[in-house]
Amino acid sequence: GDALTIGANYNVSLEQILAAYASLTKQGRTADIAQTQLKSTIQELGDTGSAAGKLLQEQTGKSFTQLMQEGKTLYDVIKILQEACGGAGDKFNNLFGNVRSGLGAMALVSNEGEYFNKTLNDMASVSGMTEAAFGQMADTSEGRLKKSLNNLKVSFTKLGQSLLPMMDQVSSGV
After folding, report:
1. Under a CB-based contact definition with an 8 Å cutoff, are residues 87 and 117 in contact?
2. Which of 97, 117, 114 is nearest to 47 (CA)?
């Protein structure tokens, strides 16, 4: 969706976009509303001329894009802004030029970012478990045998391809 495209422009990872979608929908938003709020929030954070973008630069000396490149999460960045506002909801909400971006940002940091952070951590954990399981599977006798058989098939295919021109010559001479 649009949030994914815009997020990519500001170095927001796919995992963060998906965690944000999950967080927003877990809090009762429809997918369309979650998409709109997330897109608006990212645009606002990435706009160095917006109040949110300016405050972020003032607080960190960096832009949203730079913070994303350093490995900060959406939650981390929005929390910086929330803390700079002293936790005051009105002051925080006024940083955002439209209601959609403000509501998206507020939802992502609600309950200390519980939904967002848990989803992001779960995704990282599952990814690591999948990689570990694949490594274990590949390291078994059966896994090594399958790999050897696949290598043998590739070798026979290459051999067949190299013999094919010679076989064509033999068959055309007969």
Report:
1. no
2. 97
| CA angle (31, 34, 37) in 5-degree steps | 150
Contact by Cβ (8 Å): 104, 98: no
Place of tokens 């999950």: 22
Give the closest residue to 13 by CA, choosing from 102, 113, 124: 124
How far is 91 from 39, CA to CA, in rounded Å? 21
> Residue 63, Cα to own-chain centre: how many angstroms?
19
- Whole-prediction pTM: 0.68
Question: Per the structure block, which two tokens stand in for 130?
Answer: 């999948």
- Would you list the DSSP string of 88-99? -HHHHHTTSSSH
pLDDT at residue 95 in the model: 87
pLDDT along the chain (174 residues), means of 10: 82 87 88 91 92 94 94 92 83 86 87 79 64 57 65 66 63 62
Contact 5, 40 (CB under 8 A): no
